[in-house]
Amino acid sequence: MSNTLIIYSTVDGQTKSICELVQGINEGAGDKVTLASLEEANLLNLADFDKILIGASIRYGKHRPELYQYINRHHAVLNAKQNAFFTVNVVARKPEKNTPETNPYMKKFLELSLWKPKQLAVFAGKIDYPSYRFFDKTMIRLIMWITKGPTDTSGTYEFTDWEQVEDFARAFSEA
């Protein structure tokens, strides 16, 4: 039984939903799991955990600056633990951009981060136009129009492959 920490950095909640599924699978395998937002993780001692997973979403082409600050502050402890990282972005809806080797946001993360995660994953996200404020709705619609994605702002479009998430969660649990 491992003492596992799952940290999420999310804008609209999809990354947290993915982390909750990973939490359930790891708990089902016998692990004790703590789920914490990036802000809550600042109050935790990483040395208390055997395994650490961080999941982070993209908004307007970037991970939140606080994610890099946290990781760079704790990279030595992170590197010493069994660990994993995943990124959630709508670009990953495209088959040619849905792996750690082909996803531009994962590549950028690995360039900018002092942490070198042992396990990596990329998950496609979700567009929930009805929940967005005017500016976000307009900008995301423009980005989707440019990238040939869904532009009907009355709809919600989920691209997450939940089976892929389950496979990742099982692999992390067994690591």
UniProtKB/TrEMBL annotation:
Alphabetized SUPFAM superfamilies for the sequence: Flavoproteins (SSF52218)
Subcellular location: Cell membrane
Names of the cofactor(s): FMN
Pathway it works in: Porphyrin-containing compound metabolism; protoporphyrin-IX biosynthesis; protoporphyrin-IX from protoporphyrinogen-IX: step 1/1
Role description: Catalyzes the 6-electron oxidation of protoporphyrinogen IX to form protoporphyrin IX; under anaerobic conditions uses menaquinone as an electron acceptor, under aerobic conditions uses ubiquinone as an electron acceptor.
Enzyme Commission numbers on file: 1.3.5.3
Manner of cofactor binding, per the entry note: Binds 1 FMN non-covalently per subunit.
Keyword annotations from UniProtKB, A to Z: Cell membrane, Flavoprotein, FMN, Membrane, Nucleotide-binding, Oxidoreductase, Porphyrin biosynthesis
Organism of origin: Shewanella atlantica
Similarity annotation: Belongs to the HemG family.
One matching Pfam family: Flavodoxin_5
Single GO term (MF): oxygen-dependent protoporphyrinogen oxidase activity
Membrane topology term: Peripheral membrane protein
Protein name: Protoporphyrinogen IX dehydrogenase [quinone]
GO biological process: protoporphyrinogen IX biosynthetic process
Cellular component, GO, one term: plasma membrane
InterPro entries linked: Flavodoxin_dom (IPR026816), Flavoprotein-like_sf (IPR029039), HemG (IPR044264), Protoporphyrinogen_IX_DH (IPR052200)
Catalytic activity: protoporphyrinogen IX + 3 a menaquinone = protoporphyrin IX + 3 a menaquinol; protoporphyrinogen IX + 3 a ubiquinone = protoporphyrin IX + 3 a ubiquinol; protoporphyrinogen IX + 3 a quinone = protoporphyrin IX + 3 a quinol
UniProt domain Flavodoxin: residue ranges: 5-154
